[in-house]
Amino acid sequence: xxxxxxxxxxxxxxxxxxxxxxxxxxxxxxxxxxxxxxxxxxxxxxxxxxxxxxxxxxxxxxxxxxxxxxxxxxxxxxxxxxxxxxxxxxxxxxxxxxxxxxxxxxxxxxxxxxxxxxxxxxxxxxxxxxxxxxxxxxxxxxxxxxxxxxxxxxxxxxxxxxxxxxxxxxxxxxxxxxxxxxxxxxxxxxxxxxxxxxxxxxxxxxxxxxxxxxxxxxxxxxxxxxxxxxxxxxxxxxxxxxxxxxxxxxxxxxxxxxxxxxxxxxxxxxxxxxxxxxxxxxxxxxxx
Length: 288
Ligand code: SAM
Fold this sequence. Notes:
Number of strands: 13
Oligomer: single chain
Structural class: alpha/beta
Radius of gyration: 18 Å
Bound molecules: S-adenosylmethionine
Distance between the termini: 40 Å
Shape: globular
C-alpha cells in the first residue's frame, strides 16, 4: 500500500500529515495540482496544490456552516451565487433551502468538478441534477465583472488567496459583489485559520467594511484544517441581519424542515462569539 504522506507546511514550521493510501485521481490542470486520495481514517480527501480542501469525514461541518448561517440570516433567500465550490458540497447544502429558486455556481476549474463528481460523489450527491442549479465554468473575477444578474446571497468558496483565488480577496472584487447583491443581500467568504493566517481575516473585514455596512466573522472548527478554528466573514448592507435573535433563527430553521449534523440555531448564534486572539490586532499582526 502506498503510504506516501501528503503534508501541508502551515507556514509556521509545523505541518499535518495524511497517509495517502490509494491515489484515485491526480492531474495538473490549467490552474492547480488536483489529487483525490483514500485515507482509512478520513475516507476520500481532495487536495489542491497540496492544501487539503475537503474530506469525506468532516466536509459536512464546513459546508453546513458556510451555507446555513447566511441562508437562515436572510429572511427569504431566492437567488444564490456560489463562487468556487468545485467539490459541490456548498451547492448541495444551499439547495436544501425550500426558498431557494436558483443557484449559479461559478467554478474556474472543470477538472475539480469532474474529479469530485467521479471520485467523491457523496459530496455533491444529485446537486448538479437539481433544475435550480446552474454550473458555469469561468473565472469568478470575469463573471462578476460581466454579469447583469443580482443575487440575495453570494458565497465565495474559493481556495486560499493564491493563484486564481488571490483577486477574490481584493477590495475591487468585494465592491463588484456588493453591486451584484439585491437589497438586504448577504456576502460570505471563507477566510482560513486565524491562528495561522493572522491578520488575513482582519484585512478582509476592513476591506469589506468599505462597501458593506455590517461585517462580522464567525467561526467553526473543521478537524482536518490544521491550526484550530477557521473563520468565515459575513457582510451585508442591511442592519439587523448579522446579530439575529436565536428565536428568529430557530423559527426559520424549523420551517425549513431539514436535518443537519453540525449546524443548529444555537451554534449559529454562538459562532459569532470569537476568542480574544481572533480580534486582537497586535496578536494577529505578529502572525502576519
Ligand atoms: N472547501 C475548500 C476550502 O475549504 O477551502 C474550498 C472549496 S473549492 C475546492 C475551492 C475552489 O475555488 C476550487 O475548486 C478552485 O478551482 C476554485 N477557484 C479558485 N479561484 C477561482 C476563481 N478565480 N474563480 C472561480 N473559482 C475559483
